[in-house]
Amino acid sequence: MPTSKQPPRRGPARGTAARQASLREHNLSLVLGHVLDADAPVSRADLAAATGLTRATVSALVDLLVESRVLAEGEPVQTGTAGRPAVPLTPARGTLAGLGLEVNVDYLGVRAVDLAGDVLADVVVPGDHHASDPAVVLADLAARAADVAHDLEARGVDVVGASLALPGLVDPSADRLRVAPNLGWADVDLSALREVAPFDRLGLTVTNEANLAAVAEWRARRRALPSFLYVSGEVGIGGALVHEHAVFGGVRGWSGELGHTTVEPDGPLCACGAHGCLEAYAGKDALMIAAGLDRLGPLVDLCARADEGDAPALAALARGGWALGVALASFVNLTDVAHIVLGGIYGPLEPYLRAHVAAELEARVLTAPREDLVVEPSLAGAEAAMTGGAVEVLRGLAADPSSRLPA
Amino acid sequence: MPTSKQPPRRGPARGTAARQASLREHNLSLVLGHVLDADAPVSRADLAAATGLTRATVSALVDLLVESRVLAEGEPVQTGTAGRPAVPLTPARGTLAGLGLEVNVDYLGVRAVDLAGDVLADVVVPGDHHASDPAVVLADLAARAADVAHDLEARGVDVVGASLALPGLVDPSADRLRVAPNLGWADVDLSALREVAPFDRLGLTVTNEANLAAVAEWRARRRALPSFLYVSGEVGIGGALVHEHAVFGGVRGWSGELGHTTVEPDGPLCACGAHGCLEAYAGKDALMIAAGLDRLGPLVDLCARADEGDAPALAALARGGWALGVALASFVNLTDVAHIVLGGIYGPLEPYLRAHVAAELEARVLTAPREDLVVEPSLAGAEAAMTGGAVEVLRGLAADPSSRLPA
DNA sequence: CGAGATTTGTATTGTGGATGAACTTATCGC
DNA sequence: GCGATAAGTTCATCCACAATACAAATCTCG
């Protein structure tokens, strides 16, 4: 999880001493998790059966969660069966919200999501941030975030945290953005941002855009897909592996540079200085240029050309799809992931890429003859990373609801 | 961890209800972990300071662990400082042992290791298991394991479990070996093996050889390297990523087929049916044949030729090292791992491969200009997977020492 | 329509494990 | 030998969950 950071320890026996209060924390999180994951409202009795706790214990925990506005009680409904009707419990609406922020090449924005999944605020500001000044852009973003937080709090919503998505390599330990090629940013110190309102109150975590988009995808699939690879196609190509409902964040906290998987060692020169990287075949710039279009033009131009049967466009997509398939096949052999979600520009392009990707996967994945490998376009919607950031904040809350309990 | 298997759940709130006994389990494991990780014997007071538990609680926990022969108390030593001398606590020697088993192409064996790291029994039987009959080989292995377990128990050693390493894709959910190309095994049902002595008593987990070798490497480095990539070079090439002291086991429990990373999409045909896989450049067979040697010959032949300056041998190693570097660069870009350990045949070959690997990493790894990336030969010793299997059994014990408490 | 059955949720008492303070044990320094 | 110091133990207390009993709300059936 991008949010959790433990101090480094020498051995495998991580963690800290467990005391009585730890039981509370664990069981609060357990109960809350069951309510959040459920498709329909559940009762205290349901929770007791599902968790193995007694009804008395569940009641005590639920009362705490209701009091702290995390859960809401509905009106009892007659189900037609014998017995006292159950009180339905649901995630509270409009009480607590996570803030998801994003700076990307062509927009910035702020989105607030509550525990029920409702979007309480949504600000998306188009703009060209190519070669922009980080200080200016981030100050603009902070001001808009402060406005949103202020409005929400006036409406009685507690904002519990904020998460910023950036299209680049983030180093959480050094608290800086290492490099975001498409913004033209490098070595941006992020610690100063945490001193600025509203982040001085809310806190702020900064994460790679693909990782947070993957969280949004996970939620969009109703938390039902435990493991998948999210591929974020933009100018660069990011990947985020979700494994057992957790984003695998790379060894040092940043990762997923799928775009710099080598496809052909002596292939075209990539912006990174190496030859034959996936990005040089299947990044947005590479596709647009190969199709004879403006590098900065809208993606729909490429789709339109392809629909017309334009030969250069089709060739660009075939080559991009082929390269993507080669890179994904290696990735699948390494991780055995069985589900691949194509996001970013690959969402709309999926119909054009599909066959080319599938052919390489079929030829190169070891388990292809025996196992199903699903490749699908993303369901996470527009500005997925903004949604994912907000969801990630709420996931942090769900992992430790005791932090929100009234004193 | 290969040993732990939870039932699949829908959401992120994994785990089960925490009750009072959970505190004991957690804190027992915490205390034990500190003793196992320590470089020197520690006292109860040290443990209290390190864990945050009170001395009273630590004492109670340690007494349980001593009683169940997991920890041993030494004689108090005068340290020269004031105060009552501390009782040094160490992992018990010769009381509990894990059994590590392995079937590989040219040998099979059984190794027993205790909590102190001593090898209590070691049986390695050379033999050619190319195209062998799984039933015959596994029956042979079981008989030798039973002998070892019997001898140990006659010496008062409790054997707490067994772990089998196989050079292939293991599917723990279906309880079968899917395929082990170099043994010529495919779709071997492993559940029957669990009914045979001694595994009917000891239990048995089956894991990919590279994953267990990585565990051995982790221990050989004194548990001090939390994250690294272990590369197992044999006829095939496996990889195991250790992340925060845990083996990343792949999404479905098997993984790490580094050997089938595509190096050149139109490269030489690989045994898997695809073209240009790493294995076709840098697998043992590929190297030997390219050097003009017998595919099945000993590795020292290749080293000898290289030492003589034999041109085909040097060319084979250059090409293999180049391909390995290309594949590892993609892997590093995906995971940001900062430490690569070369095991199997790459241990002895490391001096010959080093420069070629490093050149490609330097050219292709995004963070190469800024970050140190260490590539080293393995320290885990011969038959690393056998050691790793035994260690893994003991790690399972350390994670839940309450299971060994006397009733 | 009323008595029993059934299920939900609450109140009460008991238990296990950690805490914290006081106590005992063993050594050092003077 | 005596105080200081540190390790380890004893014991009363607290806290969270378990178990049991009970109250509340609905259905079923005579």
Automatic annotation (TrEMBL), chains A, B:
<dbReference type="InterPro" id="IPR000600">
    <property type="entry name" value="ROK"/>
</dbReference>
<dbReference type="Pfam" id="PF00480">
    <property type="entry name" value="ROK"/>
</dbReference>
<protein>
    <submittedName>
        <fullName>ROK family transcriptional regulator</fullName>
    </submittedName>
</protein>
<dbReference type="InterPro" id="IPR036390">
    <property type="entry name" value="WH_DNA-bd_sf"/>
</dbReference>
<dbReference type="InterPro" id="IPR036388">
    <property type="entry name" value="WH-like_DNA-bd_sf"/>
</dbReference>
<dbReference type="InterPro" id="IPR043129">
    <property type="entry name" value="ATPase_NBD"/>
</dbReference>
<comment type="similarity">
    <text>Belongs to the ROK (NagC/XylR) family.</text>
</comment>
